[in-house]
Task: inverse folding
């Protein structure tokens, strides 16, 4: 789907303009009707926002420990990358407290 060129008309037949709005503190793209102010969230962003919201509520994410060559690898879910604004190449610190390991920037 080409978001930039997508033209959407409101149910009221009003013209919709592209907006960036906030859904539970998560930035999402969408459209707003210039006539009745009805807002529509982009389906891809809506999906992403729901995942982020779910991850925040559970505050737990399950990943698998894998072996890649001689290294032991855990993946960082994309959702977490976005919530914490993590970037590939940045350094993270493991913290160990009893049986709990934490990973922090
Ligand atoms: Zn409308």
Result:
């Amino acid at each position: 789907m080409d978001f930039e060129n997508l033209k959407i008309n409101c149910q009221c037949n009003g013209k919709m303009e592209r907006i960036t709005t906030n859904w539970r503190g998560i930035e999402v793209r969408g459209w707003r009707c210039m006539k009745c102010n009805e807002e529509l969230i982009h389906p891809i962003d809506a999906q992403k926002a729901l995942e982020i919201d779910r991850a925040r509520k559970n505050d737990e994410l399950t990943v698998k420990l894998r072996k890649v060559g001689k290294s032991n690898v855990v993946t960082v879910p994309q959702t977490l990358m976005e919530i914490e604004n993590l970037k590939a190449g940045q350094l993270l610190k493991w913290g160990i407290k009893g049986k709990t390991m934490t990973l922090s920037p």
Residues 16-58 form one domain. The chain has two domains: 16-58, 65-104.
